[in-house]
Amino acid sequence: MTLIRYDKVLLTCRIQNNWALMTAPQELVGVVGLEIHAQIHSNTKLFSGSQVGFQAPPNSLVSFFDASLPGTLPVLNRRCVEAAVMTGLALNCTINRKSLFDRKHYFYADLPAGYQITQQRLPIAVDGTLTYSHLGGRKRNTVVTKSVRIKQIQLEQDSGKSLHDDYRSQTLIDLNRAGVGLMELVMEPDMSCGEEAAAAVREMQLILQALGTCQGNMAEGQLRVDANVSVHRPGDPWGIRTEVKNINSARNLARAIDYEIQRQMVVLESGGTVQNETRSFDGKTGHTIPMRDKEGLQDYRFMPEPNLPPLMVYEACSTAPPGVAPSQLVVLEEVRERLPELPSVRRQRLVETYGILPEHSFTLVNEDGLMDYFEAVVRETKAGPRKVIGWVMNELQGLLHQQNLSVSQR
Amino acid sequence: LAAARPFRTEVSTMIHATLKQLSQQLASKQISAVELAGEYLNRIEALNPALNAFITVDRDKTLAIAAHADARRAAGEAGLLTGVPVAHKDIFCQQGWKTSCGSKMLDSFISPYDAHVIEQCDAAGLVTLGRANMDEFAMGSSNENSYYGAVKNPWDLNAIPGGSSGGSAAAVAARLAPVATATDTGGSIRQPASHCGVTGLKPTYGVVSRFGMVAYASSLDQGGMMAQTAEDCALMLNVMAGFDARDSTSLEREREDYSRDLAQPLAGLRVGLPREYFAEGLAADVGRIIDNAVGELKKLGAEVVDISLPNTQLSIPAYYVIAPAEASANLSRFDGVRYGHRASEYKDLAEMYEKSRAEGFGSEVKRRIMVGTYVLSHGYYDAYYLKAQKIRRLIANDFSAAFAGCDVILGPVAPTAAFNLGEKSGDPVQMYLSDIYTLSVNLAGLPAMSVPAGFSDNGRPVGLQIIGNYFSEAKMLNVAHQFQQLPIVEGGKLNILVGDQEKVIRVTRAHMEED
Questions:
Q1: Where is the Aspartyl/Glutamyl-tRNA(Gln) amidotransferase subunit B/E catalytic domain (chain A) (predicted)?
Q2: A220 and A350 share one domain
Q3: Does the distance separating the beta carbons of A173 and B376 come in below 8 Å?
Q4: Complex ipTM value
Q5: What SS3 state is found at A166?
Q6: Mind listing the pLDDT tens digit for each residue in B364-381?
Q7: pLDDT per residue over A112-130, tens digit each?
Q8: What is the Cα–Cα distance from A286 to A236, expressed in whole angstroms?
Q9: Do A74 and B248 make contact, defined as CB atoms within 8 angstroms?
Q10: Is B381 on the interface with A (CB under 8 A)?
């Protein structure tokens, strides 16, 4: 039963993708949106001068502001603004020249102020597109290009970490992560299955890594992905959606989404209704399970952040207000100039320059350092690129895999 | 009253000295900072039990700071105010001192850092005498809301001193400190200054950094001071004002000497009198005093302009929506997790929060947190908070329109002189209504002052409010200073201790005369 259903999910995904909807109009299809929290790769936190670091001793990277001592105030980190702007430009977003900060209130021990500073009303970037590709077709060698709309990118604070010590009935709070800058990237529900979502996230990781704005490691929590999943019949209004959390890899993202779509289909086809709830992904079983309704019908009582004036970014130095030090300005023109070559452009260039197959260009770009290595080999040996690719794909990859090394490790 | 240590005769007149005079005495080595601090500490020891103006006094610490000031002077590094004593409202975080904000919630909080205001005062060589009492978390107009007990008005121990900076005002009025820092969110400098017969100033929003100033309502709070004279306030503003990158609402402007225009003649000054400030609700004796004061200024050359601030009445609901909303957010951090009061018994996190906050906060604070939470809640935000912010814009527009036709605006600070302790504490709304003349100023972000103008029918001080346009502190101080040079017209009596003897002092404007 499970196996058949899983294939059916993939089948409906492909039906929707490859053929017109007239083929199977009564089939339930999945609708998937993503909320991605990307930790900004910066030296210091979003609103305070404490260092951003991982695996530091607990509570060693905490300033008075991070601990929400009375009288402390936020000061915006320019690097974080640049990172958000750069990411927005790379994703073809409209950068809002003026954006605003808000407070989102809830009480929890790892949220020292009792509120998170975020951008709910008017975020820094809106209306972008992420173009991603995955290998489709029967032999998985056809490059299928899709795009998903980016609704918005907003700057916000990360929370601290709670470690529950059930043995001693206590909870330990580590605030090292409290106040670290995040970009929340909201993707519209333009995807229909786990494979698409995973491909989109992988592409996002590559883009963020190329930009240097986020290191993108899901296992280390640098990139956290929550999926919004619902099912419906094409043409019908959208179904009730659930939010799926606790996903620590692109692969698990695909598994979680496909399980959830299947689960919802089963619920609906047996006459039940899907609950609007938050569910947690269990990596061992591959299931999603309801979470304790901590956030249920939370009222966050959003309020404008009175300690921060509106964030202004400028198109060019000439449009910036006179007399302001460059260190106090973020200028779009300058950020655009610094945009590096994006993965999609890179892949295109490899195909055009070396005449290699598109699916090989994916491998080269996906693996850190492999593209540079490939190009170096071609240059040095003056061998035919296709020959080098063949060697890289088979011999080199095999060797690395055997020794459990990555290219960058040499 | 406990017998105070006897004062040296020549020093007793120091008690009435202004900052300027103290500065001169210190500079000419007639007195040392240690001696001066000692005299004030003696007075505090003798008089504070009756007034409760101070929450924390630490004699040894103060004398050590004073000794350091003397050392700086000996090394030739003394500034204008080096060695001058100051009382700090217990809302400014001060390293090594309990910073309680008048609340049980922070009774155990020893601040690990200094507020910008404290840093500036320390750099100027001011000597901390102690931490002044206040309404809890700056919420109140009578200083009856302090965990550490009410402050008494030195002019009449049955009267409130005003709030929330009641301790600062009482300390300066009773000559327990020559100057005190304070904060004003809806009138908390001006109203206690008025009720205690001292001069107080709230600057334009953004002029004094809020870094380290525990937040009540972030878009309304401003730090300021109280002293005996406008000139003293100008000297203190020079110390406190200035850009601070740690406060994102702090304004970067060219440095000003706020005392530069004190001596300017007032001929041609256009004084606006808002008709809404002289309407029903204003006590007759207060109205008379303000009219007399305006008359005095006319003799100095001022021209009176009739103006209107039509949205004055709306300032009360607008303020009492916005301020509690921001307060409910700002006080969310007080949960007992990292510092401050934590309940002793609880079964889980939720209960820990509930108990710690229930035990740590007083009733007025809880009231405002609940109001603030309500107005921000889903479905009510537009009707209350958003609406209030729109009204705020209208109020600011009223002032802009008025200032097109006048240089300063004058009026009363409060509808009556100080009421009795306990008189309004049972009816919070009655208390809120008495803020009618001061709230608009904070909503608009304007600067304003209170200067002693006379005494009510029952002998309690009444202040004149001066409201200036944005960044016109020097002009306001000029008007206040000229007013304070006028000869004595009315008098009042203050019973204070000098040495072992009670002396009755007539205090009018800036002059002190012993009977």
A1: 31-316
A2: no
A3: no
A4: 0.93
A5: coil
A6: 999 999 999 999 999 999
A7: 999 999 999 999 999 999 9
A8: 29
A9: yes
A10: yes
